[in-house]
Amino acid sequence: MKLSNSTVTAPRKTGRPLSFDRDAALEQAMLTFWRHGYETTSIVDLTTAMGVTAPSLYAAFGDKKRLFLEATRRYAGDQDAAARAIDDAPTAYEAARSMLVNAAIMYTGDTTPKGCLLASATASGSAASRDVQGAIADVRKSIAACLEARIDRDIANGMIPRGTHGPTLAGFVMALAQGMSNLARDGASRESLLAIVETALGAWPRA
Question: What is the pLDDT of residue 160?
Fold first, then answer.
């Protein structure tokens, strides 16, 4: 799930200039992983999409795993800014709703693959992708932790009933976001996902 529209661009290394636009190449790598997943995307798929040779890819990004992780950082955007957005939301409900509405919009973009890169790229549980799954899980855990902290604040302020379990409520939002990704990949429309958001959030606990 992406929390903000900002992106993180890695600084260029000093030395011999690259013979291609690194930022544009990374964008194409991100889209390729998003479309096909980490494990099934080959180096040939990547070099074709990025318009670079294999030696140039390795020189600029390292191996496939490091390229994938950089692509996911680009996709996820500025995590500090995302955390601030959750913390600064008027309520935890508004933070959760904003996250889910933004997810529904992103999952159904006209010029990007359907669904969520973080949910779909490492769907396989094989050993080949297991070493990157931990990094993706860390991104999701960070998002959930930020939302949980915002929920706990609303509980303390009496805006959510005492006795509400913050981790469960945050997990509900995260599970909904991942489920929406699957629906989007199956062809669900933006309108249907937005309707699901509103229906699901009808269960949000209120004081």
Answer: 97
Please name each of the domains of the chain with its CATH number. Answer: 22-75 (1.10.10.60), 77-203 (1.10.357.10)
Report, as ranges of residue numbers, the positions in the chain whose pLDDT lies below 70. 1-19, 121-129
- For 16, list phi and psi in degrees, rounded to 5: -60, 130
What tens digit of pLDDT does each residue of 90-120 get? 999 999 999 999 999 999 999 999 999 988 7
C-alpha 9/C-alpha 15 separation (Å) is 18
H/E element, 118 = helix 117-120
Question: Which helix (H) or strand (E) segment is 75 a member of?
Answer: helix 64-76
pTM given for the model: 0.83
Q: How far apart are CA 35 and CA 32, in angstroms?
A: 5
- Candidates 101, 39, 31, 93; CA nearest to 64 is 39
Q: How far is CA 165 from CA 131, 152, 162, 191, 199, in A?
A: 31, 9, 8, 30, 20
Assigned token pair, 194: 């937005």
